[in-house]
Design brief:
- There is one protein chain.
- By secondary structure, this protein is an alpha/beta fold.
- It has one domain: Alpha/Beta hydrolase fold, catalytic domain (Rossmann fold, 3-Layer(aba) Sandwich), CATH 3.40.50.1820.
- It contains eight helices and twelve strands.
- Strands 1-2-4-3-5-6-11-12 form an eight-stranded mixed sheet, with helices on both faces. It has a two-stranded antiparallel ribbon with strand order 7-8.
- Helix 3 crosses helix 6.
- The longest helix is centred in the last third of the chain and has 21 residues.
C-alpha cells in the first residue's frame, strides 16, 4: 500500500495482531538513514509489537526503500513531513485507539521531532539508537564520515557508503533543535542503545534520555547500531516497555 504526501508515494505496510479486540493501539515504525522497512531489526521489533496486541504501520521514507523521491534529495524536513502525514493517516484508521512512534537511527531522531509537534496525540515514543547527533555534527562540519566548512556547505556530499547527498541535507540538519523537541514532549519514552554503537555514540542516547521528563534508557551491552549481536535483547526491551504501557492503561 502507499500513503501519498503531495504527490509523493510512501511505501507502507499495516500489520494487525492475529488475535485480540477489534480495536487496538498502533505503532508507526520508521527505519534509518539508507535503510528500509524490511530490515531485520525493523521486522523483529514490529513482530513483537504485533504479538503484544499492537498494530504496526511500517513505512519507507522519502528516497528510501520503495518510496518515491531521490535519496540524494532527502532531508530531515522531508522525513518530518512524511512522519506527520503518516501519523495523520494512522489517526484516521477506525480500528486504532492510541498511537505510538518508533524509529531507528535517523528514524529515531525523526520520531522525536514528530512527537514534539504531535505531542497531544502521541501516547509514547521509542527511539532506537537515535541519531540525535546529526544536527550538532552538521553545525560542526563533521557528518557522514566527512569534514567540510559548515559555513560554506558544498552542493554535493558523498555519504560513507558512496551515495551522494545534496548539500541541503546538511543545511536542514543545522536548523534542527533537538533539545527543544525533547522539551516539548512530556509523554513516556523508551531509548534503546547498543553500548558499542559504531554509528551513533551511546553518549547521545544517554544525553537524550536524561533530557526527557519521562524516559527509560536500556543499554544493550556489546551491541552495535543495528543490534546485530543481541537483537533479541533490544526486542525484549521494547516488548517489556510496551507491556508496561498496557498495564498502566489497564490500571487507570
Amino acid at each position: 500500500m502507499y500513503i501519498t504526501e503531495d504527490g509523493i508515494r510512501l511505501n507502507a505496510c499495516i500489520e494487525r495482531p492475529t488475535a485480540g479486540p477489534e480495536k487496538c493501539p498502533m505503532v508507526v515504525v520508521i527505519h534509518g538513514f539508507t535503510g528500509h522497512m524490511e530490515e531485520r531489526h525493523i521486522l523483529a521489533v514490529s513482530k513483537r509489537m504485533n504479538e503484544l496486541g499492537f498494530a504496526t504501520l511500517r513505512v519507507d521514507m522519502y528516497g528510501h526503500g520503495h518510496s518515491d523521491g531521490e535519496f540524494r534529495r532527502h532531508t530531515l524536513y522531508k522525513w518530518l513531513t512524511n512522519a506527520l502525514t503518516v501519523i495523520d493517516y494512522a489517526r484516521g484508521l477506525d480500528f486504532v485507539t492510541d498511537l505510538y512512534l518508533c524509529g531507528h537511527s535517523q528514524g529515531g531522531l525523526t520520531v522525536m521531532l514528530a512527537a514534539a509537534l504531535k505531542h497531544d496525540v502521541i501516547k509514547g515514543v521509542i527511539p532506537l539508537s537515535p541519531a540525535c547527533m546529526i544536527p550538532e555534527m552538521a553545525r560542526k562540519g563533521e557528518l557522514l564520515g566527512k569534514r567540510f566548512d559548515p559555513d560554506h556547505i558544498p552542493d554535493t556530499l558523498e555519504s560513507w557508503d558512496g551515495r551522494l547527498l545534496d548539500g541541503n541535507y546538511v543545511r536542514v540538519a543545522q536548523a534542527i533543535d533537538v533539545e527543544r523537541a525533547i522539551d516539548r514532549y512530556a509523554g513516556p519514552v523508551l531509548i534503546v542503545h547498543g553500548d558499542e554503537d559504531e554509528a551513533v555514540p551511546v553518549e547521545f542516547g544517554k544525553r537524550a534520555a536524561a533530557a526527557y521528563r519521562n524516559a527509560q534508557l536500556v543499554l544493550i551491552p556489546g551491541d552495535n547500531h543495528c543490534y546485530d549481536r543481541h537483537l533479541d535483547r533490544a526486542v525484549d526491551a521494547v516488548g517489556a516497555w510496551l507491556k508496561g504501557r498496557l498495564k498502566a492503561d489497564a490500571a487507570r
